[in-house]
Write a sequence for this structure.
């Protein structure tokens, strides 16, 4: 056992930390003191109903929105008020999977996947194409999809291609916005398993927002419930069924009655 | 209480001023990105083809028939004495100074400004613009600057084509329909057509190109509300850029031709 006076090495700062975030749109107060911490190597799922503030929270983390009040720290550095190039560079180690994929319509699938490699990493196009095709295979897409256009793929395949685009530049942190929205239950389960498999294989941290309980249980080491713009419960993903929180219980069991705000 | 009727007026004025302020900031931001690397030359070339080359047919046809109709109208409205010289002169000056740049501007506005707004609007509502940012790429550099430069630089070239075809339309009507001498018509055109007339039209064209692109980009970039919002952005882009083209044409004419 270490001597009480002996200095232990400081724990690394969280990959992402949001402190007391507030964000309003006119009279609509969406975030009301939101706190989130994502530690290295963990997969955190933030659950919440429609309009609870999940998307606004993740947009604040990504720098796509600026909170009215509060701080966003990435690897311990405050990036809340960074703008332009500095804001982009602060999030250079992030990979993002958008709700509907957000693949670029004007680019072929391999060009989508290679986008970050070419434009952010400065890789030459032939090498980027090879890496893109290898990454497509990693997410279960055949090399023959590389030269297709995004609308030529099914919803599930678009999600896979978008995941390939997110992981191709080797990010430290992956963010997922409603990754199973719009997919049938079987495809949703496949995508959820693909996500957690990818996260564990790459050894990255992951922050996901979803209202899909099955997805949350599959991909989350840790879970947090957001209600009315703040976190009302957090714990292990496996404990969602026995949280002891009325709103979480209601959410888990899909009951329609209104739980009191915690 | 009795002044409640002023509320909507005040709100409208505030909204208009807020919109103007956002547009001004957007324009300054776009211009500031033109001078700073990185540059996406491939995208610039792609936009040059889409805005310039693909606008050629509509610009060529519009200009040719306008020049031809212009010659007919001048002929019917003037006495026959010396009309050969008068028609050639008015068609040449009218096309190069006013009709060439304005008609080309309006045609390209209808094609390109709407297309830019619809494309960027669609990218906005499907989160593709947000995706660009998460891939460490500045949307202003990737989307706005190539379109702005392409429209500003290709519009003068389109206007040169428009001028030439408009004059040709007038020439064909003059020589084939009205029986004028080709040599006299061309000599009159060359005598009165000055370099100033041509360059003034090209300066206007560059300004119109900038207006077309910046309005299309702003409307698309700031659009919201799904498919309906994208449609509104495209319509607004055409209407606003057309009005600005006509208004700025008056301002530039009064400056360029002030005695």
């Amino acid at each position: 056992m270490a001597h009480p006076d002996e200095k232990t090495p400081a724990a690394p700062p969280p990959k992402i930390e949001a402190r007391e975030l507030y964000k309003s749109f006119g009279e609509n107060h969406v975030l009301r003191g939101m706190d989130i911490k994502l530690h290295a190597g963990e997969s955190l799922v933030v659950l919440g109903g429609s309009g609870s503030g999940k998307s606004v929270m993740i947009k604040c983390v990504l720098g796509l929105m600026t909170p009215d009040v509060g701080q966003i720290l990435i690897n311990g550095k405050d990036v809340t008020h960074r703008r332009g190039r500095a804001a982009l560079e602060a999030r250079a180690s992030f990979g993002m999977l958008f709700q509907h994929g957000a693949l670029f319509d004007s680019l072929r699938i391999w060009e989508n996947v290679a986008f970050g490699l070419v434009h952010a990493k400065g890789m030459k196009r032939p090498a980027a194409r090879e890496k893109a095709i290898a990454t497509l295979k990693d997410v279960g897409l055949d090399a023959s999809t590389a030269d297709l256009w995004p609308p030529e793929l099914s919803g599930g395949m678009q999600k896979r291609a978008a995941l390939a685009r997110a992981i191709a530049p080797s990010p430290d942190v992956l963010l997922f916005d409603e990754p199973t929205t719009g997919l049938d239950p079987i495809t949703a389960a496949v995508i959820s398993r693909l996500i957690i498999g990818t996260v564990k294989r790459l050894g990255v941290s992951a922050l996901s927002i979803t209202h899909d309980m099955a997805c949350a249980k599959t991909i989350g080491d840790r879970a947090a419930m957001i209600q009315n713009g703040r976190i009302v419960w957090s714990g292990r993903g496996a404990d969602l069924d026995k949280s002891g929180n009325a709103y979480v219980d209601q959410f888990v069991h899909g009951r329609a009655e209104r739980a009191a705000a915690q | 209480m009795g002044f409640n009727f002023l509320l909507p007026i005040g709100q409208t004025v505030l909204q208009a001023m807020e919109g103007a302020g956002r547009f001004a900031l957007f324009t300054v931001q776009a211009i500031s990105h033109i001078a700073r690397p990185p540059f996406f030359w491939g995208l610039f070339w792609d936009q040059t083809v889409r805005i310039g080359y693909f606008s050629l047919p509509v610009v060529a046809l519009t200009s040719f028939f306008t020049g031809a109709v212009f010659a007919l109208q001048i002929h019917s409205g003037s006495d026959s004495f010396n009309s050969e010289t008068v028609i050639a002169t008015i068609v040449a000056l009218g096309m190069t100074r006013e009709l060439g740049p304005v008609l080309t501007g309006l045609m390209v506005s209808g094609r390109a400004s709407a297309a830019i707004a619809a494309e960027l609007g669609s990218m906005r509502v499907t989160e593709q613009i947000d995706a660009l940012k998460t891939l460490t790429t500045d949307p202003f550099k990737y989307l706005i600057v190539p379109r702005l430069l392409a429209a500003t630089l290709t519009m003068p070239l389109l206007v040169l084509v428009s001028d030439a075809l408009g004059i040709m339309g007038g020439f064909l009507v003059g020589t084939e329909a009205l029986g004028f001498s080709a040599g006299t018509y061309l000599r009159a055109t060359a005598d009165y057509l000055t370099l100033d007339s041509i360059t003034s039209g090209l300066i206007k064209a560059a300004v119109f190109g900038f207006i077309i692109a910046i309005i299309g980009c702003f409307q698309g970039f700031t659009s919201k509300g799904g498919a309906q919002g994208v449609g509104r952005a495209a319509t607004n882009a055409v209407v606003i850029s057309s009005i600005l083209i006509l208004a700025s044409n008056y301002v530039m004419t009064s400056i360029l031709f002030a005695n």
Observations:
- Residues 185-202 of chain A form the longest helix (18 residues).
- The longest strand of chain A covers residues 28-38.
- Chain A touches chain B through 26 residues (CB under 8 Å).
